[in-house]
Design goal:
Blueprint (H helix, E strand, L loop, with lengths): L1 H7 L4 H16 L3 H25 L4 H31 L2 H33 L4 H12 L5
Helix pairs in contact: 4-5
């Protein structure tokens, strides 16, 4: 050892090299216990980050709710208006029926455009604990990705 130590500049250098080498070898193998500890730490960090985000954004909570309810309300109004005009269009005269059906087609197009955003808003408010699973499923279905 003293020959290696003298070669690298000190008596402890060889010991340090051996310790670091074994340390690197130990770190290159990931045991089940280390995986479990890392997973628990990651979950704790994610919860902590979520709580910190919720605390830091409490001031904008009311604004988010107003925006969410107004978008959802607009979508619901258009959906109900299209449904009512389709049903009423059946029972009125030909001229009024054509106008009601034309307005229904216009509303249906706009409803289809807004539906993904409304579903995302509703999912955010009512399915927040499950959003990770929903996002994963949506990415698998619409993102052309596999598991």
């Amino acid at each position: 050892m003293s020959l290696l130590g003298n070669l690298f500049g000190s008596g402890d250098a060889a010991g340090n090299i051996i310790d670091k080498t074994f340390g690197l070898i130990d770190k290159s193998f990931y045991t089940k216990q280390e995986q479990g500890e890392a997973l628990m730490q990651a979950e704790a960090d994610a919860r902590k980050m979520t709580i910190q985000w919720l605390e830091s954004t409490t001031g904008s909570r009311l604004a988010r709710r107003v925006i969410a309810f107004s978008i959802t309300g607009t979508w619901l109004f258009m959906f109900l208006a299209a449904t009512v005009s389709s049903v009423v269009g059946i029972w009125v005269g030909d001229n009024a029926s054509q106008k009601l059906m034309a307005s229904t087609e216009i509303l249906d197009g706009r409803i289809d455009t807004m539906t993904p955003a409304v579903m995302l808003i509703l999912g955010f408010y009512f399915a927040a604990p499950y959003m990770g699973d929903l996002a994963k499923g949506a990415l698998q279905k619409f993102g052309n990705t596999s598991k």
